[in-house]
Amino acid sequence: MSASSAINSFGARAQLTVGDASYEIYRIDAVPGAQDLPYSLKVLLENLLRTEDGANISAEHVRALAAWDPAAQPDTEIQFTPARVIMQDFTGVPCVVDLATMREAVVALGGDPAKVNPLAPAELVIDHSVIADVFGTPDSFSRNVDIEYQRNHERYRFLRWGQTAFDEFKVVPPGTGIVHQVNIEHLARVVMHRANGEGTVQAYPDTVVGTDSHTTMVNGLGVLGWGVGGIEAEAALLGQPVSMLIPRVVGFKLTGQLPAGATATDLVLTITEILRKHGVVGKFVEFYGEGVTAVPLANRATIGNMSPEFGSTCAIFPIDRETVDYLRLTGRSAEQLALVEAYAKEQGLWHDPSREAKYSEYVELDLSTVVPSIAGPKRPQDRVVLAEAKARFRTAVRDYITDADESGVESFPASDAPAVRNGISKPTPVTPADGPEFEIDHGSVVIAAITSCTNTSNPSVMLGAALLAKKAVEKGLRVKPWVKTTLAPGSKVVTDYYDRAGLTPYLDKLGFNLVGYGCTTCIGNSGPLPEHVSAAVNAADLAVVSVLSGNRNFEGRINPDVKMNYLASPPLVIAYAIAGTMDFDFEQDALGADQDGKPVYLADIWPSPVEVQEVIGSAISAEMFAHDYADVFAGDERWRSLPTPTGDIFEWDADSTYVRRPPYFEGMPEAPAPVEDIRGARVLAKLGDSVTTDHISPAGSIKADSPAGRYLAEHGVERRDFNSYGSRRGNHEVMIRGTFANIRLRNQLLDGVEGGYTRNLLTGEQATIYDASVAYQEAGVPLLVLAGKEYGSGSSRDWAAKGTALLGVRAVIAESYERIHRSNLIGMGVLPLQFPAGQSAASLGLTGQEEYSVSGITALDDGTTPRTLKVTATGADGQTKQFAAVVRIDTPGEADYYRNGGIMQFVLRNLLRA
């Protein structure tokens, strides 16, 4: 049904004339009470008005949203229909694999494969596959791209097939930019306009869901959107609305202006810390107030990008003059600019700093109080004031030092906060093949990476870094020889303005040569450390450090040799590369000496805001964006020359180790089987707090002795060609074996063991999690996972749920969940349960070695969702413990997905009935 044939219960359909063009719109103010709604809920209200059909979306849903009670807890479900879907290749490849498999399943069940086709614009940006293998050389970029194509040609051929096989599906080829930066610089419309098939053109807010949690970066443009799992994205592509509860909205008031010396990175780390403490998981965050006008668009995008790190569904800014100016700068047409401004003003979506909407909760920040900061060593919300970084590092490093004397006692008192140079120092000599010997120690910075969409979209911090590099070179400073230095901007525009400003040679001089336009170090694609550095780190078991301008620094994510990871602004990344160690005080310690032997401090090379702004004004123009995005989907000769399969049905290569047909639809009946209770289950993994999707499904390197590594070796893949888990997400055989394979995973069924291991409770022996799951499935034993707080935080990684399901896990029982992973589990037919409030596995005395049953699940077959289920744990001595686990199926739509065995099965059955 087209939107123009919507029921229009409120008489909201109207016309908007902009210049010579006329657009059909749905007026938000046609609904009583809508004028007082927050910006984000007005966007949702328009969405409901435009898609009202009397069934999935009724007048009652519209009234419920307009009558939203900010004080109430969410309990009203609505159906949100996003305007478009955006993907990156790590999550997009398995999405297209699923669509290709779904076409085959439709044919097998007697349907038309063409029914499996995107109904909304879908764009995929290949940005997660480049690895910084080569660095510090003028040809680093070209060599890394060559290696990328060699490793990934199977995947890229598959995506080129998808480009031709599916309507409304476009691919941005490798070497172009990071998905979120490409989104804000080119793909985002802010206001959509599309012919509705009835002779009129509709205008409506640009809304988006994406297969990357940092889709929220586009919130900085006033575009409502958030990250979803690949399986939810597939449903959205096929016309399924996103089921959600009307959320609580947190109003975040901004006042003042950033002081000199504070960067957008410092601002976003401060906001992340504030909102993590406040508690915004599952809520919308919306910025308002006089201070909004003082926040440049690039800074707004930086804040939006970090929404997953403070846990909110979105973190949105309203449309205003700054939005339109940014669209003009980035090369949008005059017609589009006029439409955005006219539509926003007509619909009450234009920011009025004097008007305050009603919010569920309120937070406030005076921007003038922000100070230089970093975050780490393992979570983005753990902000550290830069002036305290040295002391805080010396305290934190104790948790990463494993030195002990023969009696097993630590070589320093645990109650102290020892200096690295006083008590636990371990100077370790390193002899490179082509240079003088040097020493590294605990705290040595071995990776300094300017990477990730978070900051590389922001000219102020990127040019600030380049100006700092210029001043450092002019003072005679150099990067320490043990530091791997990389520059991976989010789009080609960054290197264009570096070149125009004449700053590229200074970055090159410090080793920050371009390594690629992609999500490198932040996603785990930092590439290996130089062999001599890696060998020394591992031989001495050093707690070395990475410093990156990214958004995530979880354990085991950045590099397998690096235990501690800190987020910092791009200028500070360069400063730490020069310092060479985290055991450094930028106020008191000199970075080196100039040509006259005088000490050089960070303050001597830090560029002023005036200097940065002058370069921004002279080096950045709209023509740059227009040129770089003129033919963004065409790609270079390498992309265009790839052989492309054709046809509606993909021809799978039986020998491929990248793209294989997954088993989701094998033997699927036309009607779902009855839901069953869980009996005789064993625990596959018992986990603690803050277990991220990186712990569950790592994206980085594949170890040779892991189940995935053995699988690849058995299929003739050389170790050097293993690539990463992220790049092999189109092969379920690799990904099942990689589930729970993070080298820093701590499974409490084992003592003192890190990595993807468990206790096979059928034999009592230690085994890899994959091998144990095979044994359990052969014995017909269902599996559970027990976990602590914030289970599944981090990236919107659908393989964290897919792998869990394919390992045979029927349910997860956690203290709390992050939003996306909980919904992904349901989307794969895995039941998310929650311990009763205030209780945990520990408080209930659960060891994880019991046998478990979960009863009451069958009530779902009656069309109801029970609030709690009875869990019984029976120990080896026959003693039982019982508790009422909370069912985290939060909406009727999610219950439908679970009853069908997953969201893909639900969508497929609906397509067959259509």
TrEMBL record:
Going by the UniProt record, its keywords in alphabetical order are: 4Fe-4S, Iron, Iron-sulfur, Lyase, Metal-binding, RNA-binding, Tricarboxylic acid cycle
As cofactor, the record names: [4Fe-4S] cluster
The protein's annotated catalytic reaction(s) are: citrate = D-threo-isocitrate
Positions of the Aconitase/3-isopropylmalate dehydratase large subunit alpha/beta/alpha domain: 73-580
Q: What is its EC number?
A: 4.2.1.3
Iron: is it a keyword of this entry?
A: yes
Q: Which domain of life is it from?
A: Bacteria
The record's annotation in Pfam families points to:
Aconitase, Aconitase_C
Q: Specify whether Lyase is a keyword of the entry.
A: yes
Q: Where is this region: Disordered?
A: 408-435
Annotated metabolic or biological route of this protein: Carbohydrate metabolism; tricarboxylic acid cycle; isocitrate from oxaloacetate: step 2/2
Q: Name one GO molecular function term.
A: 4 iron, 4 sulfur cluster binding
NCBIfam families named in the record:
aconitase_1, PRK09277.1, PRK12881.1
Q: Which PANTHER family match?
A: ACONITASE/IRON-RESPONSIVE ELEMENT FAMILY MEMBER
User: What family is it from?
Assistant: Belongs to the aconitase/IPM isomerase family.
Give the protein name, as stated in the record: Aconitate hydratase
Organism in which the protein naturally occurs: Actinocrinis puniceicyclus
Gene that this polypeptide is encoded by:
acnA
